[in-house]
Amino acid sequence: MAQYDLTSKIGAYLDRHLVFPLLEFLHVKQVYDERELLLGKLEIVKNTRMIDYAIDIHKQLHPNAIIPEELLEKRRKVVNELKIYQEETNHIRRIFESQPVVKQIETTRDGRTLLDFLVKNYQFNIEWMDSVYIFAKSQYECGNYMSATEYLYLYRLLVRISII
Length: 164
What we know:
Layout lengths: L6 H5 L4 H13 L5 H12 L5 H11 L7 H29 L1 H9 L3 H12 L6 H13 L3 H19 L1
């Protein structure tokens, strides 16, 4: 089956986060040696913010070795940045997670109506959406795809209508 695998050819043109599921599939199907795949995964995630996963892969490759200080330092940096992004968007995320807003989002697919609702009831400022975008991007880079998807959906919905 390895002779038919195109992962190495198409992987060069994909975002690292899109290559990762391909490697997971190859791992499950046992197409390649497990160690080779783990080394490939580590190579991919070491240049992302998926640092906890990189540490897990390192532990699988070197079960008795100490985690390299560079990985631990990168983890501290990523965690600190995430805390800052969370603090910057905390008030916005609370608004989006409140029951009336959740209900409004579910029932209204029109960005203008949603924006009017947010401005009227929560003194919402469209400029806050820049920090929501940064938060969503950081979630994506850390591999938290569902969270990133939710906030990018809201960003797209609200920002698109403010441009029109």
